[in-house]
Amino acid sequence: MAKIRRDEVASAALELLDVVGLDGLSTRRLAEKLGVESATLYWHFRDKSALLGEMASLVLARHHTIGVPEDIADWPVWFADNARSFRRALLAHRDGALLHAGTTPNQAEFARILPKVAYLVSAGFSESDAQMALLAAGPVHRGLRAGGAGA
């Protein structure tokens, strides 16, 4: 049996997603693609939901890489660019928006969200308004709730 790494499983799952779509993605199909038994996948992911979450995070890590500028006067331009970057990330894979909408952010995603909230706060937003603005501009921030970061 072939040895596989967690990142290889998630990457292969994204490749399979592009071919079969979210409805056609199954752990059985993914295991066949990787040349392993289905049970092997559960060594890396406790269930399909965890795999889908990792896939969504990987899409953002690869395709939504815009950082925050130093100049807060540029916040409106940055905000629009951030929303466009997020949209491009969702369009990078078949059913990317559906994949993303059905998952919750992990710690790495929160680490990427917090500087964006802080940037908007430094531009004059309250923390809750900054969170709501990011939430409204794109579900990348789907785990944020007014008044604080979500789980």
How does this model look, in words?
The chain is mostly helical and 151 residues long. The chain folds into 2 domains: 6-58, Homeodomain-like (Arc Repressor Mutant, subunit A); 65-149, Orthogonal Bundle (Tetracycline Repressor, domain 2), CATH 1.10.357.10. The protein contains 8 helices and 2 strands; from the N terminus they run ααααααααββ. A two-stranded antiparallel sheet has the order 1-2. Strand 1 (144-145) and strand 2 form a beta hairpin. The protein is elongated, with a radius of gyration of 17 Å. The termini are far apart. The model is unreliable at 140-151 (pLDDT under 50).
CATH-derived architecture of the largest domain: Orthogonal Bundle
* CATH level-1 class of the largest domain: Mainly Alpha
Rg estimate, integer Å: 17 Å
Give the proportion of residues in helices: 55-70%
What kind of sheet is the major sheet? 2 strands, antiparallel
Strand content: under 5%
**What is the CATH homologous superfamily assignment of the largest domain?**
Tetracycline Repressor, domain 2
Keywords: DNA-binding, Repressor, Transcription, Transcription regulation
Pfam families: TetR_C_1, TetR_N
InterPro entries: DNA-bd_HTH_TetR-type_CS, Homeodomain-like_sf, HTH-type_TetR-like_transc_reg, HTH_TetR, Repressor_TetR_C, Tet_transcr_reg_TetR, Tet_transcr_reg_TetR-rel_C_sf
Protein name: TetR/AcrR family tetracycline transcriptional repressor
